Amino acid sequence: MTAELVRGQNHPLSQVHLEVRISAGAPIVAGATIGDERGKVHGVEWVAHPGAPTLPGLEVSRQAAADHRLAVDLGAMPDSVHRVSVLLALPSGVGGPVHFGAVAAPFVAVTGLDGTEVASYTITGLEAESAVVALELYRRQDAWKVRAIGQGYAGGLAELLADQGLPEARSLADTINEAVSRAHSRSVAPPPPRTPDSDRTRRTASPAPAQSASPYTAQGPQDTPAPGTSDQAPSVVQGGQGGPAPAQPSSPYGAEGAQNTPAQAGRPDVSPPAGRAGEAAPPGTSTTGGPVDYSHPGRRTAAPPPAPPTAPPARPGQPARPVAGDATGWSMDERLYNQVWGMFEDLARTVAAYRSAVDFADSRLEQEIDRALADPRNRLGGPGDGAREAARAKHSQLVDQARAALDRDLAQLIAEAEVVEPALPLAYARWDSPVWHGYRVPMEMPMALRLGDLRLPESVALNIPMLVRLPLERGLWIDSGGESLDGSVVDSGELRRLAMDTAVTHAARLLAVHPAGEFAVHVIDPAGAGALSLAPLVRAGVLAGPPAAGAAGVADVLGRLTQRVDLVQMALRAGAADSLPPDLDTAQQLLIVNDFPHGFDDRAVTRLRYLADEGPAVGVHLMMVADREDAAAYGPLLDPLWRSLMRLTPVPDDHLADPWVGHAWTYEPLAVPHGSQVLQQVLDQVAAARRSWNR
Amino acid sequence: MVDVSKGGTPGGSVNLTKGQGINLQKSDGGTLTAVRMGLGWQAAPRRGLFGSRTREIDLDASAVLFADKQPVDVVFFRHLVSDDGSVRHTGDNLVGGVGQGGDDEAILVDLPRVPVHIDQIVFTVNSFTGQTFQEVQNAFCRLVDEANGDELARYTLDGGGQYTAQIMAKVHRVGAGWRMTALGTPANGRTFQDLMPAILPHL
Fold it and tell me: Is residue A144 part of a domain?
């Protein structure tokens, strides 16, 4: 059982072999000091830090990282040691954040060697401090205990060490910073990539992201292997999951120092120093971090769902009362996702059963009537009528039975939807859900996003949330052409406006579910036709820049995004993700294009297609708001572009098929309730979070 | 799971003979909700120069769903779940068992969810790789109550002859419940399509 400590609280430790797991939103330095029974640290040799990582019974990482595991063996501590203080500090002089107020609250957990948590502590309330004593392990009557400390120091490491009674505090702090910046040229491990798979492994290990650099940090000589080279690549694949870490602090350019620099390029084949274990990953192949890529290259979790939940399809006689989250998964997020997909499949199949029964009844009726009519004697009155009556009776009996079975299943699915819908988290919830009123900018990207609702004509009362995995793997196309399903006359100007409104709500939702600074939205609106719809985004100031207008604006935005895709691809291929320019925005990018192909010349069209093809893999996504007819002049040349995008409509439309039986589902986008301010409020919070994050 | 390697009939299982039928009811009289049709086989060792060498034999289990004698859906290795979701194939096994005697392929039927118009489900076995049943040994098909793992019925494909397929059994509606009848008719064909003419007389 994990004890979640608050500041000052202590907890007994029953084991002596422990790990202290630390995770923060940005690379930090972790160290430890050992003190005597009065807490005094007698000298530099009583401090474990990146420059001198091992002490008896204690080992710390040699580099700054967002995640640390410190190995602790309390049994190996000399008898004179009564206290082990675990300290964290932000590395100085590497261009990262300079105070803890700018990063996510560090999370510290004491775990057994098997990863089971004994105690954990989230260090909240830090502001201007740049070093903090996270917790201490101390001896009390021959037993060890842990206490949450959370004492921060605005003066940094030097002040912290001085406070522990170390005379050489200043010079030791310099030594540590130098060691860190040397190691920095090799790697700064960002928070682990958030592929669905790694998400799972991470969650099994501990609730904190404790995966990235840890297996490597404790091995090798002075020059540790650079897990960042393989670990970091996926973070860019995913389009900069760099956590709240600002602007890629892993630039190698700032800090070569005296260090030999091979690892900087991340190529294990360039004269690696001896002892470079764990560098087996061929550059550019790893997508999940670590030397072996276990992910199936062809099996990306896209629109067809990952394995539907394994809950038995049987719904025996008296169905159990439905429960939200009743599906497999490591987190509630994942369980609800799987449950929704399970409901989706159940509805698809139930309706398939109903339709096939009715089809069969119809065709049998037709055959039987034909047979009855085949005999001329039966055409008039008598036995012919009887046969027809009988056939009709059989037909309606079968249809009634089928309808009863459908109603039974629908009732159960509706009951399930009634408990699931209110339990859905932000990213899956409708705009009228109360969770949006308590909106706070999340710390983690969710697993999936709700793009709308799906329903079948047989079950208008039952809306299935349409959830797609994040990061998006296909661009979106909000169709501003065509006509609505119910044929209601929507004039084309109105439809275009609706399409743009829909695009804006999708974009707002994407912005809202991503942590601050992890999602950037660009807009191309060549003629300014979407200005009214875009107003909420512009007013809140959540766009990366003002909507680009005119041919020059189009060329500029496309040029920048193309360059980004190209750079990141090059870096990935070379296995040198950390050699990207420091000003490269690692956030995922969304480009909204209104009025295509207005304002596009051939060169711009080619660039757009390049972004559509190559962008998703490196975190650049496309949202086209367009009427295909407008681009008719291109003939079939653009067909592959349209096909590569997921078509969504601003009004209900039955164009989406499920992956099991291929019913045509009616898609309806999520609408913000009339008169509701929720969108504006959410966007204001996003903007505020972004401002404080940029600070 | 029951040990079936010796062809024994553990528990209350009925060892069926050709043409014999059983009602699919629980021993306590309740109706079954889910049954599994399991298929197991081993390649027979060949006599000859390398007597110990066995060849891989790919038998495929299929289930054909009939409504009033018209086939409406098929569950087999290329279509693992019936459109309505009530019949599921657990996946293709290309080589058969290596002697453990467990099910090598299985088809799960969720009886209450079978669409109302489906009144018969016929289970077949085909030799996809073309060997005749002479080269197969210890082949069996059995029906298991999926809820508790009890074996309800077992049918052994012995007397292997010069044929490449067998129509094993059918599960059909009787009143409000279901009944299984062992068919055991030999036939020839690579997949279930080839067997359709042979199946129809049994409906």
Answer: yes
Model pTM score: 0.62
**DSSP 8-class letter at A115:** S
User: DSSP characters for A608-670?
Assistant: HHHHHHHTGGGTEEEEEEE-GGGGGGGGGGGHHHHHHEEEE-SS-EEEEE-TTT--EEEEEPP
Closest CA to A343 of A477, A464, A253: A464
Q: Are residues A476 and A419 in the same domain?
A: no
| Contact state of B85 with A405 under an 8 Å Cβ cutoff | no
Amino acid letter, residue A308:
P
Q: CB A660 to CB B116 under 8 A?
A: no
Query: In 10 A of CB A680, how many CB atoms?
Result: 15
Percentage of chain B with pLDDT > 70?
A: 77
Q: What CATH code is carried by the domain that includes residue A530? A: 3.40.50
**Nearest neighbour of B85 by CB, restricted to A313, A357, A401:** A313
**Do residues A508 and A396 share a domain?**
no
Q: Are residues A507 and A581 in the same domain?
A: yes
Q: Is the pLDDT of residue B127 over 80?
A: yes
Residue partners of A341: CB distance under 8 A and separation at least 6: A305, A306, A308, A309, A467
- Residue A550's region, left for phi above 0, alpha for psi from -120 to 50, else beta, is left
| CATH code, domain with B181 | 2.60.60.30
pLDDT of residue A284: 37
Interface contact B88-A313, CB threshold 8 A: yes
| Whether residue A189 is found in the same domain as residue A115 | yes
Tell me, yes or no, whether B93 lies in a domain. yes
Half-sphere exposure of A99 (CA within 13 A, CB side): 14
Asked if A350 reaches chain B (Cβ–Cβ under 8 Å), the answer is yes
Which residue in this structure is represented by tokens 């690549």?
A233
User: Tell me: the pLDDT tens digits for A130-159?
Assistant: 899 999 898 888 788 898 888 888 888 888
**Claim to verify: residue A535 and residue A668 sit in the same structural domain:** yes
Per the structure, the complete domain to which residue B85 belongs is given by 16-44+57-202
B11 belongs to a structural domain: no
- Whether residue B3 lies inside any domain: the answer is no
Instruction: Answer for the pair A106, A23: CB distance below 8 angstroms, yes or no.
Output: yes
Query: Given CB atoms, is B119 within the 8 Å cutoff of chain A?
Result: no
The reported pLDDT for the residue numbered A254 is 35
Number of H helices and E strands in chain A, helices first, is 14, 21
- Residue ranges making up the domain that contains A630: 470-694
**A381 in a structural domain:** yes
Q: Are residues A514 and A629 in the same domain?
A: yes
Between B70, B84, B117, which is nearest A349 by CB? B84
Is the ipTM higher than 0.85? The answer is no
Q: Which residues of B touch A356 (CB under 8 A)?
A: 72-73, 83-84, 115, 117
Band (A41; pLDDT cuts 50, 70, 90): confident
Distance between CA atoms of A278 and A261, rounded to whole angstroms? Answer: 17
In a domain, A223, yes or no: no
Domain count, chain A: 3
Structurally, how many domains does chain B consist of?
A: 1
B72 → closest Cβ in A354, A356, A402: A356
The answer to whether B139 and B133 are in contact (CB under 8 A) is yes
Contact with chain B for residue A399, Cβ under 8 A? no
Structural domain contains residue B8: no
The C-alpha atoms of residue A28 and residue A88 are separated, in whole angstroms, by: 7
Q: What tens digit of pLDDT does each residue of A67-97 get? A: 778 888 888 888 888 888 999 988 876 667 7
A550 in any annotated domain: yes
Query: How many Cβ atoms from other residues are within 10 Å of residue B47's Cβ?
Result: 7
Please answer yes or no on whether A360 and B85 come within 8 Å at the CB atom: no
Q: Are B135 and B55 in contact (CB under 8 A)?
A: yes
**What band does B56 get if pLDDT is binned at 50, 70 and 90?**
confident
Q: Nearest C-alpha of chain B: how many angstroms from A296?
A: 19
Shortest distance between the Cα of B158 and any Cα of chain A, in A, equals 34
